[in-house]
Amino acid sequence: MNILEILSYGFIQRALLAGTLIAVLCSVLGVFLVLRRLSLIGDGLAHVTFGSTAIALAFKLYSAASLLVSLPVVLLASLGILKLTEKARLSGDAAIGIVSAVGISAGIMLASVGGGYNVDLLSYLFGNILSITYEEVLIAAGLFCVVMLLLGLFFNDLLAITFNEGLARVSGVRTNLINAVLVMLTALSVVLAMKLVGIMLISSLLILPAVSALQLARSFKACIALAALQGCCSVVAGIFVSFLTNLPTSATIVMLNLLFFGASCGLRRLLGAKSSS
Amino acid sequence: MPVEIVATEGLGCSYREGCVLEDISFTVTAGDYVGIVGPNGSGKSTLVQALLGLVPVSSGAARLFGSRCDGFNQWGRVGYLPQSLHLLNPVFPATVAEVVGLGLLSLKSFPRRFTRHDRNTVDALLEELGIYDIRTKLIGELSGGQQQRVLLARAMVNEPELLILDEPTAALDPETRQRFYQMIADINRTRGVTVLLVTHDTGVIGQHASKMLYLDKRMLFYGSFEDFCHSPEMSSLFGEHSQHLMCHRH
Amino acid sequence: MRTLLLIVLSLTAMAVAGLTGCTRGEQQASTKLQVVTTLFPLFDFARIIAGERAEVTMLLPPGMEPHSFEPKPNDIIRISKSGLFIYTSRYMEPWAETILKGTDRRSLRVVDAGQGVSYLKGSAEVGHDHAGHGDHGTDDHAAGMDPHIWLDFSNAVVIVNNILTGFVAADPANAPLYRDNAAALNARLADLDRRYREGLSSCASRTFLHGGHYTFGYLARRYGLEYRSLSGISSESEPSAAKMAAMVRQIRSSGVRYLFAEELLSPRLTETLAGEAGVEVLKLHGAHNLGKDDVQRGIGFIELMEQNLANLQKGLACRSK
């Protein structure tokens, strides 16, 4: 099977396009989230999306219309995580754990109180990178532009709060605003991208490219670039490998990211040994 | 008429485990070099953090450049070097130049982008502080002394009128420590920068600072170093012998 | 002292309420046989056999896929209080056997409605048919068995008879009525079978392509259709890019004009495949469960299968008689 033939399928083209856009934005967000110790926020917000989708289905809002409910709920949940870390002095993982447990149990309660649905909730919750529509490619592109534009505008402020929040405040950075921007961009990406490519891909793309880049990066900008590069390469390679080996696509992409992470660790050791000798 | 830079009136902070500071009132004027000293846990760091609005004030008031600290926004006039040991994530992937550049954010408004001129400013300062050679190294790879200088550069890069340094010499060996104090004294003298320096080595700071603030939850002394050395309260606190050792200028 | 009195009073009130509640429940239970079923076909058949003489309920909440179901404490109480519990197999309801372990088997009559049915392996996955992976089910029977036995209407008759045996044993007094109801139901199923055989006898296409999990194997086999699904039986598995492409090629080469999707489940993947190959999507009902609206409308198994037949005839371009 040659590459041109693989590329002749429309669903592959759309997977490549939307997949790389989502991979790049998740990887870049991931660098900030991992350094702020909010790595699991993707999983947490996915659980909240589950709960809010249960509400949406109870009102007979399917697919795109369910966003009318999930988007505001998940944005609020992301701010809730932030407030818990600030006001209740909880660590990020505990705050995420609370919000995610509340999200999933609210969903389960609603599902049983509501007396069932017209469809199977779980099957509507997660997208699949191979079933992206043309409109969803546009959504991914729009999301990419919004997230990248805001990350670009606030880049130095984000770097400052990620390095040290106290120092950032003394440099005139409005830390509450910037924190809110970061988690709300994450929430927006999780809700939209989950419908497109599924949660497994989102949560791994928020973590693995960032931690690999942290192994090798020689500057913050390089770290962002390396993470984006890994995210992008893993999706492209994952789709082709899945084609050639007949393995599930999302799982293949996650495994490739793990492989890249292993390689980064190995490379760091190698470089470390060379520079110290 | 000396210009007021920092002033507090009956300042009190009680956060986390009970009361930390009580009834602190003092005024720092332009060109002062104030050494803030006192035993461990006396609230020295809390005091400067309260001035910067980093911890909440529970009573009284504090002013920076004449405006109340809780609404203060002229951050371009302030440089701050925090206690470094709490600060650094050893795997943070930022270079020395990137970290120092962050100090310039206080001079910018949205969107805060850096220009070539900013990069030149950073390079010039790094050169001046003798750390230009390590500008592309990651902050986590540096020795304690190097990190301290990088953070000092970050605090100074916006050419502040007020420099607040919290235990800046904790990670330094005695020789570097001596050079560091000399450098701060030079900055204070030649550029007219007002300096607040928190430290627990009372003896060394006494040689450089123009004023001493002795703190132990309450303010026990505030005045010139001369007065500090001749204060009967201080001699009863430290004992005559220790006071003599502290005040003996090398 | 006053608080103690309050506690005693409230405890008494609770006990009285509990006792009256119990007696009321027993009165109801004593008049009618309580029957709990797992899946929709079992529920519908049991409901028809019971007529007015027994109370039949279904465990699955509307819309839910049987694999994602998790029994609540209430469900377990409902089962242990019932006189008859009907399920099909551990392939479809892995949670049923766990529940049964916790109940008193002496008072509860359990019917395995699939008893005597020969289960088939589900192996008509796209890309698996020619490549020599056909024997993947032999080492693990539970994983490869197709649980949708009711979609072969001769199996449905076996299920009806199994349920009838359960009813007769649990409530011998009403046995003649149950037998009559079951016989009538079996006649309707036989008629349905005849209409399927006739309705699907002269179709332009005999290729039945399904862009989802393997579900309709029994149905296709009975009426001589060639059935291919995008993925295997497990509802957790996810297709590879290669399988998607193989399905697209199969749709194109077989020249079908419709691709089938399953009701209740998200049609995303099917719609992608249909869009890629330039065909349309038609829905079929797997019947393990009903959507909420269909439950309220009181739709039955035979009506669902009539809808399926209409869509199959449209999708395979059959000449209707």
Please report the number of helical segments of chain A: 13
User: Any idea what the shape of chain B is?
Assistant: globular
User: How far apart are the termini of chain A?
Assistant: 47 Å
Quick one: how many beta strands of chain A? 0
Overview of this structure, please?
- The complex is a heterotrimer of chains A (277), B (250) and C (321).
- By secondary structure, chain A is mainly α.
- Chain A has a domain at 10-196: Orthogonal Bundle (ABC transporter involved in vitamin B12 uptake, BtuC).
- Chain A has 13 helices and no strands.
- Chain A has helices spanning 3-7, 10-35, 41-58, 67-87, 92-113, 121-125, 134-153, 155-163, 165-170, 175-197, 199-216, 220-245, 249-276.
- The relative contact order of chain A is 0.16.
- Chain B is α/β, with parallel strands linked by helices.
- Chain B has a domain at 4-90 and 161-247: P-loop containing nucleotide triphosphate hydrolases (Rossmann fold).
- Chain B has helices at residues 44-51, 96-102, 116-128, 144-156, 174-191, 202-208, 225-230, 232-238, 240-247, and strands spanning 4-13, 21-29, 33-37, 59-64, 67-68, 78-81, 162-166, 194-198, 211-216, 218-224.
- In chain B, the strands form two sheets. Chain B has a six-stranded mixed β-sheet with strand order 6-7-8-3-9-10, sandwiched between helices. Chain B has a four-stranded antiparallel β-sheet with strand order 2-1-4-5, with helices on one face.
- In chain B, helix 2 packs parallel to helix 4 and helix 8 crosses helix 9.
- In chain B, 42% of the residues are buried.
- Chain C has 321 residues and is an alpha/beta fold.
- Chain C has a domain at 203-315: Rossmann fold (3-Layer(aba) Sandwich).
- In chain C, the strands form three sheets. In chain C, strands 2-1-3-4 form a four-stranded parallel β-sheet, sandwiched between helices. Chain C has a two-stranded parallel ribbon with strand order 5-6. In chain C, strands 7-8 form a two-stranded parallel ribbon.
- Chains in contact: A-B, A-C.
- Chain A binds chain B through residues 35, 152-154, 156-157, 159-160, 162-164, 166-173, 213-214, 217-223, and chain B through 49, 52-54, 73, 75-76, 78, 80, 82, 87, 89, 91-95, 98-99, 101-103, 105-106, 108, 110-114, 136, 138, 154.
